[in-house]
Amino acid sequence: MYTVKPELRMIVEDCYPHIRELNPAQRSAIESGYLESDENYIIAIPTASGKTLLGLLAALKTILDGGRVVYTVPLISIQNEKIKEFKKLEKHGIKVGKDPKTSDLAVMVFESFDTLTRFSWNLLREVDLLIVDEFHMIGEYSRGPVIESAVTRARQLNPSMRIVALSATLSNMDEIAGWLDARVVEHDYRPVPLHREVLDTEMFGARDKNQVVLKILEKSIEEESQTLAFVSTRRFTESLASYLAENIRGRIPEDMKERFRTVAESLLEVPGAAGSRPTSTCMKLAECAASGIAFHHAGLFNRQREIIEDEFRKGNILMITATPSLMYGVNLPSRTVVIRDYTRWTGRGQQRIPVFDYEQMSGRAGRPQYDDAGYSYLIAKSHAEALELEEYYVNGEVERTSSRVLENRDAFYRLIIVQVASGLSRNPDELIEFFKGTFYGYQLMENPYMNSFGMDNLQYELEGALDFLVKNRILYPGPDGFAATEFGMLIANSNYSVETAIKLNQLASEMDELNIYRLIYEITRTPDMPLISFKATKSRDPVRERLMDHGLFVMDIGNEEATAAALIEWINERTEHEIENAFNVYAASTRRVAYEASRLVKFFGRICEIMGVYGYSGQLEVLSARLYYGVGEDLIPLVVGVRGLGRRRARKIIETFGDDLRYVRKEDLKRIDGIGEKLAEAVKRYAERC
Ligand SMILES: Nc1ncnc2c1ncn2[C@@H]1O[C@H](COP(=O)(O)OP(=O)(O)OP(=O)(O)O)[C@@H](O)[C@H]1O
Ligand SMILES: [Mg+2]
């Protein structure tokens, strides 16, 4: 730490007592003049090598000089983790939060930062340092273009802003550095050595891959260490966890059993707090957790995922089986990482995961504050396959990171709309200028084979896109070039995809009268809806029948239809437990999904207004609220009027006392399960207001 200025050092020593000195990777950054420089930087050092601290040091330096910093991350869970970590700085007078308007150090997800670059230019111009964590995400199909366009716009609008990009997995460094006009720090030091190996079933005389995972688990019980296992689907996280739990149940040391049981109980309590009986997924989860194994995927209650991560950190879970969503940036005490599946389903069938994902998953093993060694095991079927996988993954290079803005059509459209709507580009020439500033443009111009051909191609694509956007009444050619219609402005101001907006617009113009069930169904078919998925290949007839009850006749029943059916049940006050039983779906995520649907209903309402389709606004408000709260129409005033009451207690009140609550006594209200003094008072206040 001697290389860091005393005032910075003091803050870091106070907030991070476990950090006594910088490691060699961090030192190489500092010694290159990183903290004194105004230049952009790319810090490309291995997983777990402490990139966050390097980002933070630059942030502190900027803030102490009176500046403002934005630190962007890919996921809300990482945003929360970082805010929790950085909040320790507040006692040194540094404001930490999510909003750069009110924070010296704002941690934002990529999409929120993108919003800032679209319309909040005054605030954007006050940002002195932008840190982009997990910078390799720029090469990801759906999220990459968001970062790319936000960074490009931010650089054009605020040229003096410094950019620091952090990543463990970048290969074509020259290109990226060239684009960002950045200095590069590369180092291969990893504070915790990571042993990477491919195991196979033949080595162990095992029947299948699961048996190999079981062997690894047995070893980690002996060593008292913890393991994180990656598989490709939600269903596999569950089947692997159940298999392991069954096989080690009888062999868990007595002292561990009690701790596991407590975790299982707290996982089982979660649905109750949300007003549902435990779903069968919850029961399965609790059963596995009682043997020290937990599965982790998007079909669980949010709170359950938090509990799993917290308890794993406390050592009360032996192994988490997870989907790749836990792959980036998280710090967990997993000495061992197992990658059981190295293929996954994509639109083009079964595909190998990139080396890139292999590196990120492996990187979750052996994190400095928890372990002194890390082990990553990829599992192959046969010995021959293991040899091949070793060559491909363990000795392989991560893929090049490339721009996706042209490949991802919707992102390309969005980019054009935003440029035009914000007045930054009004004609094809100005748009071409903008694209030259993107990573896409840079890759195009630097590539000698692509250069002239590429430019022609871009021009051609651009013209096609402009035609498409004019045809869909998103842009129109005006006297001073292109401009955005009101519909185009709405899209530019939202984070929704162009496809969603066009679909909902078509629906608004086709409908003779508002059919809320049809609307719910169409919303589930937009790309912006998270979906509730089927659990197994059981009968899908109940979903078909429920949709039919509401006049929706559908032949192929998939997750979109399951989601629509679940949402219909949800607004009729069914619990997650009931929804799961009725349709055999992962119903624990219903609330999250309904929240998104509720926002999309509002978006649809705005589209109707703009298109001159009047008369629905009242009904749409009601539907949006029903989705948000999961209630029938009659319950809305009460659940909106009494914060924290929730739909179950609200229904009980109406059932018991009717809907005129003016003469109900507090004591009587308190007889209802779950209503205490405070809530009873709030209900009384509500009744008096009515
Ligand atoms: N010099 C240091 N000495 C001891 N611990 C450190 C040091 N620097 C960072 N750490 C700790 O190491 C852990 C991993 O750091 P961090 O999360 O920043 O890794 P990372 O480089 O961002 O990895 P990833 O690529 O996986 O996101 C953190 O708990 C951090 O506090
Ligand atoms: Mg990190």
UniProtKB/TrEMBL annotation:
Residues 208-417 form the Helicase C-terminal domain. Its EC number is 5.6.2.4. Keywords: ATP-binding, DNA damage, DNA repair, DNA-binding, Helicase, Hydrolase, Isomerase, Nucleotide-binding. Residues 32-188 form the Helicase ATP-binding domain. SUPFAM superfamilies: P-loop containing nucleoside triphosphate hydrolases (SSF52540), Sec63 N-terminal domain-like (SSF158702), Winged helix' DNA-binding domain (SSF46785). It catalyses: ATP + H2O = ADP + phosphate + H(+); Couples ATP hydrolysis with the unwinding of duplex DNA by translocating in the 3'-5' direction. Pfam families: DEAD (PF00270), Helicase_C (PF00271), Helicase_dom4_arc (PF21280). It comes from the Archaea. GO terms for molecular function: helicase activity. ATP binds at residue 26. Monomer. DNA-dependent ATPase and 3'-5' DNA helicase that may be involved in repair of stalled replication forks. Belongs to the helicase family. Hel308 subfamily. This is ATP-dependent DNA helicase Hel308. It comes from Methanothermobacter wolfeii (Methanobacterium wolfei).
